[in-house]
Amino acid sequence: MSAHKNIYIGMLGCGVVGSQVAALLEKNNAELSTRAGAKLILKKIAVRDIKAAREGINQSLFTTDAQSVIDDSEIDIIIEVMGGIDPARELILAAIKNGKSVITANKALLALHGADLFTAADNKGVDLYYEAAVAGAIPIIRPMRESLVGDQITRVMGIVNGTTNYILTKMDEEGRAFADVLKEAQSLGYAEADPTADVEGIDAASKAAIIAGLAFHSRVSVDDVYREGISSITADDVAVAKTMNHVIKLLAIAELTSDDRISVRVHPTLIPRSHPLAAVRNAFNAVFVEAKSAGQLMFYGPGAGGAPTASAILGDVVAVARHRVSDSVGPRESDYADRAIAPIGDTKTQFLIRLNVADKPGVLAAIAQVFAKEGVSIQTVRQSGRGNDAELIVVSHGATEEALSSTVSALSKMDIVTKVESVLRVLGSQS
Amino acid sequence: MSAHKNIYIGMLGCGVVGSQVAALLEKNNAELSTRAGAKLILKKIAVRDIKAAREGINQSLFTTDAQSVIDDSEIDIIIEVMGGIDPARELILAAIKNGKSVITANKALLALHGADLFTAADNKGVDLYYEAAVAGAIPIIRPMRESLVGDQITRVMGIVNGTTNYILTKMDEEGRAFADVLKEAQSLGYAEADPTADVEGIDAASKAAIIAGLAFHSRVSVDDVYREGISSITADDVAVAKTMNHVIKLLAIAELTSDDRISVRVHPTLIPRSHPLAAVRNAFNAVFVEAKSAGQLMFYGPGAGGAPTASAILGDVVAVARHRVSDSVGPRESDYADRAIAPIGDTKTQFLIRLNVADKPGVLAAIAQVFAKEGVSIQTVRQSGRGNDAELIVVSHGATEEALSSTVSALSKMDIVTKVESVLRVLGSQS
Question: CATH number of A344-426: 3.40.630.30, 3.30.70.260, 3.30.930.10, 3.40.50.1220?
Answer without folding.
Answer: 3.30.70.260
